[in-house]
Amino acid sequence: MSDPLALTLTAADGYRLSAKCFPAQGAARGRLIVAGATAVPQGFYRRFAAFAAARGYETLTFDYRGLGGSRPAHLKGFRMDLLDWGRLDLAAAVAHMAQPDLPLYIVGHSYGGHALGVLPNHDKVAGVYVFGTGAGWHGYMPLLERLRVQLMWNLVLPVLTWWKGYCPWSMLGLGEDLPIDVYRQWRHWCQFPRYFFDDPAMQGIEHEFAAIRTPIVAVNALDDLWARPQSRDAFVAAYRNAPLIRTDLDPHTVGGKVGHMGYFRSGAEPLWQNALNFFAGLPATPR
Hints:
CATH architecture: 3-Layer(aba) Sandwich
Radius of gyration: 18 Å
Strand content: 15-25%
Structural class: alpha/beta
């Protein structure tokens, strides 16, 4: 297995993003981008990227602006829009990877299933497979998780974010720290059952999602407390013109526990192979 190649992507607004490309082994079957979850650095997806590359898919991982290798020197004072991750950052990854010789696919995790809907160059993508995408509303969660999340959003994080000037997500052991605008928008939209589709200030965003016609598979584990199937269904309904398959995953089929992060941990290889099998069965060019 070849070592991944470190790259720098440049978004349309000039922001520079850290990325890694895992070269395809053997006969190339396609190109693939991993669109990660909120607060999760690209290194978390390295096992999946190596797995896909070994099976003929040139695979790109990258850090959204404000995270991991794309984090500025000082997160305090850094301003951005949460949708920049899709409209600018994922768009830069697509622009880099899209070539006429091979089809391009996206594997998404959580926010990655949101990013597709605002991706300006989605016509370059032949297929999308997402894990753990949901609407984020606490009402879809089990009671204890609902209470924990409400405590986090309404008491713990407001105090910590006021103190630090950014969201110190890492202090809670939940992932990377977040720019303050990401925290504010994410917290605001999670109060709605249909996320930003229910926000009066976001009127019109549903038209961007309706423009997507790329085939999508949305997989959610029954033990994913943050994105259960009901939460997924509330969000992905916005992809109303895309061929869409919803899959409810029994965690016992992959070792008994998945949660929100287990889709990309060691032992999840059967899930990864399912994604590659889906791509292999699609037409070789975008719709």
